[in-house]
């Protein structure tokens, strides 16, 4: 089965070549869904001037070359082509889709190695809401690429190295390892950091010890490294609790923190300097990628080594990009990182290209993540102005979801399971349904609603279909009758579902999971209309119609569940 718009594009392009010559075969037919037909092609309007003919004349010439078309083509107005596919064609494609385990979703040939850098919390502090979007969006992209057959290498670029770890290790020694581990495993990383910082700022002896500890850490002192591992292991165990609640696919094997690149930094600097890509400027080693200037119109430096000999984010990111291209053999690298880092990554990519470390055969892309806002339109924070802890926010979403279903008669274990699924769907879908580079307001009341474009509404759509099958007494997998799309609501739903495979491919290629959300929301909306207008198991529905509609329900359920799974949104059996 094929996406109708792809079929129409190919047919109209063939007609263009026959009508006006092969040089027009690659013209965009400008096919869009239409309220007057299934689709409308506006290519005659754009071609008319070039052909020096009226748009309507061009449209009629195209129509004449579509005599074998599986449907009807009518010229409308000044030259629009109104295209309606035949019911038989739509039904045939829907039947093939139902029989296809992949629902029309193809696989990439050849498969690519896609490195996805996402989540990346700072181990010196607690995970907060700022990490939510990078984690959710990155995980959905990883799921999408794997579904298309790409080899995905997840990279959780933890902030696990640097000068703060001197004071953190000294504070760990002061309070004792057991107390420190308990605090970190409980998700009190921010409190741990604040206590260490207060001592660093107010106690000269502690400050001296902390600075000395940084030196021993960077020199690889075994005892200091052991203490660093104690700190990191406890911190990662808490991160994993958050990932488990969120239902993301990151594991310890995916951790590739700043510490991993530490042994590579000296060579990174040496190689960049030796090649002439980096030069000394006011004591610092810098790359000046062409095209980047500051407010004073002077070339903007990417500082690879500071004047005091220290390294920064740019050093690590240059080492990382070389490692990902050379060692991981990446064909494509996605950096799922906040919008505010846009200039940094533009300069890193430019510098890596200049150094020859990022060849034209490898795509490096910054998947920009917009800010999460509170109801006041400002960065989402607590009333005291601090970042909201991510685990606290997730628990609140689960609590809100529990209230939503508390009167539905479920036993305690089932209610807990459903509340967790609904709470996570509310948070994750709200994030994914807006363009990843856009800001959005975090509003739990709206997110947990079972109406509108929300995660719970999508879950409710799947639960409604499963309820139909329970009442019918059969499994969705057994609904294999030929799909017949006799009623308008049936036809609208069936035609829409045919676009799923191509949509998934487009979403993956463009890193735009919000478009998949929009498709699924439209699916659920069309399902609702179908549910109201086309009874499936009510008294008076003949067995043949019942079986045909159950087959359409089964196809819709599979599309919804597959799409939501690709987004990382859980789907409970009941709501």
TrEMBL record:
Domain of life: Bacteria
Principal location: cytoplasm
KW Membrane (keyword) present: no
Reactions that this protein is recorded to catalyse: tRNA(Arg) + L-arginine + ATP = L-arginyl-tRNA(Arg) + AMP + diphosphate
GO terms of molecular function: arginine-tRNA ligase activity
CDD domains in the cross-refs: Anticodon_Ia_Arg (cd07956), ArgRS_core (cd00671)
Gene3D superfamilies: Arginyl tRNA synthetase N-terminal domain, HUPs, Isoleucyl-tRNA Synthetase, Domain 1
Pfam family, one: tRNA-synt_1d
UniProt keyword annotations, A-Z: Aminoacyl-tRNA synthetase, ATP-binding, Cytoplasm, Ligase, Nucleotide-binding, Protein biosynthesis
Stored SUPFAM superfamilies: Anticodon-binding domain of a subclass of class I aminoacyl-tRNA synthetases, Arginyl-tRNA synthetase (ArgRS), N-terminal 'additional' domain, Nucleotidylyl transferase
Compartment annotation: Cytoplasm
Residue ranges of domain DALR anticodon binding in the record: 458-575
E.C. numbers: 6.1.1.19
The Arginyl tRNA synthetase N-terminal domain, residue ranges: 6-85
Protein family per UniProt: Belongs to the class-I aminoacyl-tRNA synthetase family.
UniProt subunit comment: Monomer.
PANTHER family: ARGININE--TRNA LIGASE, CYTOPLASMIC (PTHR11956:SF5), ARGINYL-TRNA SYNTHETASE (PTHR11956)
Name of this protein: Arginine--tRNA ligase
């Amino acid at each position: 089965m094929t996406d109708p718009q792809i079929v129409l594009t190919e047919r109209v392009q063939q007609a263009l070549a026959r009508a006006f010559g092969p040089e027009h075969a690659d013209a965009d037919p400008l096919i869009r869904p239409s309220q007057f037909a299934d689709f409308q092609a506006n290519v005659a309007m754009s071609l008319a001037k070039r052909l020096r003919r009226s748009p309507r004349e061009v449209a009629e010439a195209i129509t004449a070359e579509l005599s074998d078309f599986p449907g009807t083509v009518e010229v409308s107005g000044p030259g629009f082509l109104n295209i309606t596919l035949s019911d038989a064609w739509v039904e045939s494609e829907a039947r093939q889709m139902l029989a296809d385990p992949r629902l029309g979703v193809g696989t990439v040939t050849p498969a690519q190695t896609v490195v996805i850098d996402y989540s990346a919390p700072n181990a010196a502090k607690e995970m907060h809401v700022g990490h939510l979007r990078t984690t959710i969006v990155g995980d959905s992209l990883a799921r999408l690429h794997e579904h298309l057959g790409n080899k995905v290498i997840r990279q959780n670029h933890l902030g696990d190295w640097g000068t703060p770890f001197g004071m953190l290790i000294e504070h760990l020694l002061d309070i004792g390892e057991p107390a420190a581990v308990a605090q970190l495993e409980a998700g009190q990383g921010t409190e741990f950091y604040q206590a260490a910082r207060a001592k660093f700022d107010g106690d000269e002896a502690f400050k001296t010890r902390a600075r000395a500890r940084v030196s021993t850490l960077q020199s690889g002192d075994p005892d200091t490294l052991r203490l660093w591992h104690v700190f990191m292991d406890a911190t990662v165990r808490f991160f994993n609790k958050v990932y488990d609640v969120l239902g993301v696919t990151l594991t310890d094997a995916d951790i590739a923190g700043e510490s991993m690149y530490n042994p590579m930094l000296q060579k990174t600097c040496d190689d960049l300097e030796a090649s002439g890509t980096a030069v000394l400027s006011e004591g610092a080693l810098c790359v000046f990628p062409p095209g980047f200037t500051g407010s004073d119109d002077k070339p903007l430096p990417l500082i690879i080594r500071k004047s005091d000999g220290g390294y920064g984010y740019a050093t690590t990111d240059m080492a990382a990009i070389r490692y990902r291209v050379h060692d991981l053999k990446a064909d494509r690298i996605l950096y799922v990182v906040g919008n505010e880092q846009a200039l940094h990554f533009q300069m890193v990519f430019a510098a890596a290209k200049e150094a020859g470390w990022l060849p034209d055969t490898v795509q490096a892309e910054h998947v920009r993540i917009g800010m999460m806002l509170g109801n006041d339109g400002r960065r989402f924070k607590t009333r005291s102005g601090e970042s909201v802890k991510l685990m606290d926010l997730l628990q609140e979403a689960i609590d809100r979801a529990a209230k939503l279903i508390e009167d539905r008669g479920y036993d305690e274990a089932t209610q807990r399971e459903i509340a967790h699924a609904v709470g996570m769907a509310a948070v994750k879908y709200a994030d994914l349904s807006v363009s990843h580079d856009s800001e959005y307001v975090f509003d739990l009341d709206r997110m947990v609603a079972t109406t509108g474009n929300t995660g719970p509404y999508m879950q409710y759509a799947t639960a409604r279909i499963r309820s139909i099958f329970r009442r019918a007494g059969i499994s969705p997998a057994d609904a294999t009758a030929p799909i017949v799309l006799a009623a308008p609501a049936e036809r609208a739903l069936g035609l829409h579902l045919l676009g799923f495979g191509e949509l998934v491919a487009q979403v993956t290629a463009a890193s735009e999971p919000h478009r998949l959300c929009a498709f699924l929301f439209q699916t659920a909306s069309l399902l609702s209309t179908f549910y109201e207008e086309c009874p499936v198991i009510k008294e008076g529905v003949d067995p043949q119609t019942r079986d045909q509609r159950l087959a359409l329900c089964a196809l819709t359920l599979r599309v919804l569940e597959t799409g939501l799974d690709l987004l990382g949104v859980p789907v409970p059996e009941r709501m």
